[in-house]
Amino acid sequence: MNRGTREGQGNRTSTVLGRRLGGELQKLRAKAGKTQLQAAHELSATTTKVTKMESGWVPMRDPDIRVLCQFYGATDADVVNGLLDLARLDRDRRKAKGWWQQMPIVGGLGEYIAMEEVATRIRTWQPALVPGLLQTPEYIRALGVTSNWSHPDEIEALVTTRTKRQGRLWGDQPLEFHAVLWEAVLRQQVGGPDVMRAQLNHLVEMAQLPHVHVQVLPFRAGPYPGANGAFNIVSFSEPGALEVGYAEAIGSTLWAEGVEANAAYTRAFAQVSQRSLAPHDSVNLIDAISKGM
């Protein structure tokens, strides 16, 4: 698990994808019984470069990855191609000059938004709030008023940032989005009954999109798994090829960068999803709560 991302200049930034790639190469090196000095010699480079590669501080070239895989005895084509795909995603993410870089309100969310921009699928478990990609502007403003965003300009910047992110749900290649919400999310009146009713109606509308799946974990399901808090699973490329777990804590963000840690997030999401109502029944519940509000 990694707490946040250190910022650097240009490409010299430790990124989530870079650290994941570096970690996988480090495991291959350890399994092969090789040292960083030996790997550096194979690359005609310094041990400092190998250290930076394994720490995710620099983008990796395909030839370097191929040389190291061959040196480590990693000949499985799926493994090598998976690392090359990961390296490509990391390079693209580093080169991206996204709109979020100009938004002062983003703060520590910059790395997450950059990942969201290149993701193909996101699964989210939310026990307290409607997920950001499905929030209405009025709901966002109500959240801003009750948080640390006290100035109207800050709140509007928050609305702008979040609504821009929602653009990932539209276009020729929209993001596949699967949200599981605890029933409390639907009944907590953020902004009052009018704001909340509009938000619930928006959820119903968004759930009609073929690439948006909304489920509700009802109160009657009893104690639920995933009680430690909300989290997202960000996926890239083919389903299951690369997934990274993400959670927000007070004053920091948490990325699950190892295979085992990400598997734990995947299991937790599967558990809450399996215990939740089917999408059709979930939409009916959301609609009923909206009409009764």
List descriptors:
single chain, 293 residues, 434 Repressor (Amino-terminal Domain), Endonuclease, Chain A, 2 domains, 50% helix, disordered N terminus
Tally of separate helices: 12
Sheet with the most strands, sense and barrel status: 7 strands, mixed
- Tell me the number of structural domains: 2
In sequence order, what are the helices and strands, one letter per element?
A: EHHHHHHEHHEHHEEEEHH
**Helicity, in percent?**
40-55%
Question: Residue-averaged pLDDT, rounded?
Answer: 86
- Roughly how many Å is the radius of gyration? 21 Å
CATH architecture of the largest domain: 2-Layer Sandwich
Ranges with pLDDT <50 over ≥5 residues?
1-11
* Structural classification: alpha/beta
Name of the level-1 CATH class of the largest domain: Alpha Beta
User: What is the CATH topology of the largest domain?
Assistant: Endonuclease, Chain A
Number of strands: 7
* Beta-strand content estimate: 5-15%
Beginning-to-end CA distance, first to last residue: 41 Å
